[in-house]
């Protein structure tokens, strides 16, 4: 004989759910179901657990069930809409949020999630309106963050900065927010301000890996290798599986004239992310600097297979092939590089040097003449002192050989 | 360093109690505090020292246990224990050295609406089928009325053969009424049953700050969102508050005599404050489901299910937020040695002790905590009692000389000091350096490599030609009845080859045979690839439906020569109906193609 719903089990179900004892919680719900004492709330929690376990479609049908039983319950509608969003049913989710609006609860969360759905369907104006409405009802940091992100998507950086500034007034000590603003400033080229914000973020959360990585890369770019390495050490303790991190560490060691250690780090990075072309390219760079043309060639070949449209890879491969004496493939590599970046003085200069090294002096002179007519002189080849120095050397070589 | 001393640990106590179900009381006024633990298996155990001195059965799943002063008929007040279990509060009193049941109190019952009563009357009277009754209940709920728990059971019951029947119809043969809607109606022949709200939380509001008489009136919260302050005799309700959600815990600060504040975290992530004047308008909204809260002066510490500890001001402004390394399973307030703080328990078994918001101690337990309390026990004024996930009981004593007020904050090691852990093994790299130091040797190796590569490509091409020719020879004059298509998955050394087999007409009793040939197109003793299942049966092939067979192959001892996988589908007589081949090398040499 069926009994009345045992609502005393609801509290146990809740306690188990929030304490992450999901299996125990599910078995209790199953017991309730088999005993005929299943409650609406237990079905709801079962839906939440299924969603956390990745069974989104099942969770959606469970929420559908509870919404059918109690269509005016805002929590049920909200969670059903969340599952719909995760299933990619954005328009259905937006409809459900519309039903929540009809309940006139003035709930910021439903507007916030509606805004997220509208962002997915690329209705950015409506999404912005939804986020603003959410903030009108109750100000919350996630809303600011989503609104800022939306502004970045539509490339309205000034408004994004305005939103984030307002958010900083609301939560001035939030490390995640400080990091987000810092990264945006970094993207806008305001390095100094970005670095300050990242530093502030680290004051409140000195272990945040993303912040540490961003701050360290700024330090690395500005040449403060020791400080960057200290920050990378802190990240490595938490995220030892990050390929990007080991790649950056490798380049730090290369800057410190420790190429063997750099190669060790890059090999680890490559092991962690075998399809990351930048790591293969970096490995190639280190091998070139060490004078290992064959090893460099293999790394660059792998990088080229993964990223077949990046000019510097082919430019460097041309240099390496010149070292190895493969003239035809060397010139083909330079031509491919110039196909992708015809305005690169560096690649043209390297090609000129390679032609001279391969004994094709007439072609080399013609290339040098072309280079001069295009840029006007060896000192204006792009501003890099190494390039200018190489250009001067080649000019000197040509003048000596002419005599 | 921990300020606690290990006192007692029993791993086989088989306890299942959350923090609110752990309490201690000086039951007999002898200064020897007994420990009371109400377990989820409906038992109340009383511990004196390490010994269980009494065990009582409880008529419901306990949601909390408290000790308080019960007012008698003659207005005298004596110590009692109240256990909230299911829909009732069971009061126990110590009598002549034994804890005995004293009274039971139930909260005011749920009053069903007239419309709902009418629906139930019609259901019992046979005027409605079970499904019609459910529909009317849903309509009633949609109109904004709340329905009784019995009505909710009716709606959540699973589908049953008797759902389309009325009470007048006969139950179909072979059908039982277990877990059915009709079963619920049959169980309540008088219509709607009197239903009492389930209690979700219980606490005590101190009467005064007098240490000798610290215990006062009981406050309970229910599944319906009601909060009741009971009278001193625990026989009637004194004040009633109605919340919009279901409370999960009740935390009291202040006294009944002066002023009090009850902090009420709820299931909908809201945290309400109740004072004598009513429910405060400042409602805190947490960002995730609430595990529990602790209030210390004007700060509210909220532990949420997303492994976060948030600090809110009394006005509801979030002041700080900390992420924990593992999910939070419990947070419990303590007031010991004139220091107020809380204990934060993580699912990893770590227990952190905070003075205000400052961590002062940490300890690692063998198992995660389920419930924890800092209570007086035996003759010790501060004992840390914890019930673990495995059912163990762990009691630790706060060191009598522990000065929690002057303990320094835990200084975490600087993550920047952790060494990178790069293994100093540069032998291979140095040998490469030595090998390539001579540019001429590097050049030789490069051209040697290119020659080998070219030879491999030529061998592959030649094998491809042979394979095509072989297929043409095998299938000469035969119209292939079966189509084969192959896809490869995996990065090696093991691969999964999926063979999609399709037919133009229905075929039965076929088999897929996979053979690995050498570069000359002939079977070899040392094939380049090892095949796990060379013969796979295909029971039936239907037109328009692809049958997918999985062949696992691994790199064998072929010494790097080009090989060929040949797939043939044949019938029982051995007649080949379809054939396909796959070459072993996947060569994509960029430089040679330039």
TrEMBL record, chain A:
Record organism: Carpediemonas membranifera
Family, similarity comment: Belongs to the BBS4 family.
GO cellular component, as recorded: ciliary basal body
GO biological process terms, semicolon-separated: cilium assembly; protein localization to cilium
Swiss-Prot/TrEMBL keywords: Repeat, TPR repeat
UniProt keyword Amino-acid biosynthesis present: no
Intervals holding TPR repeats: 40-73, 141-174, 311-344
Bilayer-spanning residue ranges: none
Gene3D superfamilies given in the database record: Tetratricopeptide repeat domain (1.25.40.10)
Name of the protein: TPR repeat
InterPro entries: TPR-like_helical_dom_sf, TPR_rpt
TrEMBL record, chain B:
Domain Bardet-Biedl syndrome 1 N-terminal: 5-274
Molecular function in Gene Ontology: patched binding; smoothened binding
Pfam families the UniProt entry points to: BBS1 (PF14779)
GO biological process, one term: non-motile cilium assembly
Gene Ontology cellular component annotations, sorted alphabetically: axoneme; BBSome; microtubule organizing center
Name of the protein in its database record: Ciliary BBSome complex subunit 1
Gene source species: Carpediemonas membranifera
